Amino acid sequence: MENNNNTLTWDEFSKVEMRVGTIVEAEVFTEVRNPAYKLIVDFGEEIGKRKSSAQITKLYTTEELIGKQVVAVVNFPPKQIANLMSECLVMGAVEGKEVTLMTMDKPTKNGLRIG
Q1: Contact 15/75 with Cβ under 8 angstroms?
Q2: Per residue in 55-90, pLDDT tens?
Q3: The domain made up of 16-107 is a member of CATH 2.40.50.140
Q4: Handedness of CA 4, 88, 21, 15 (dihedral sign)
Q5: Kindly report the CA angle at 43 between 56 and 100, in degrees rounded to 5?
Q6: How far apart are CA 109 and CA 112, in angstroms?
Q7: 20 or 5: which leads in pLDDT
Q8: Which Pfam families does the entry mention (predicted)?
Q9: Do the beta carbons of residue 111 and residue 47 sit within 8 Å?
Q10: CB neighbours of residue 35 within 10 Å
Q11: How far apart are CA 84 and CA 107, in angstroms?
Q12: pLDDT at 115 (0 to 100)
């Protein structure tokens, strides 16, 4: 099969490190133009806690995010977003300005790899 721009090889996909983490802190990110939250996600002992910014204010409050288990990419390089250095990318389904988080339907150990 020919590899075009939309097709990944299995080797390329295996390099994307998606992990389960629990949101332990969430607050309004007042320093950005588009409404967003600052998150701290706990990925367990091996990876630890990572910061992220997420534009998920349409569907979630900060209170309901605490304790929610999410899926995030943890091996992208850090990215400066206003005054926050984002260390992971929390995954979600995007429809316009609404983002629905990818969550676990059963309690899962923090740090487990998605594959």
Answers
A1: yes
A2: 999 999 999 999 999 999 999 999 999 999 999 999
A3: yes
A4: positive
A5: 20
A6: 6
A7: 20
A8: tRNA_bind (PF01588)
A9: yes
A10: 13
A11: 29
A12: 85
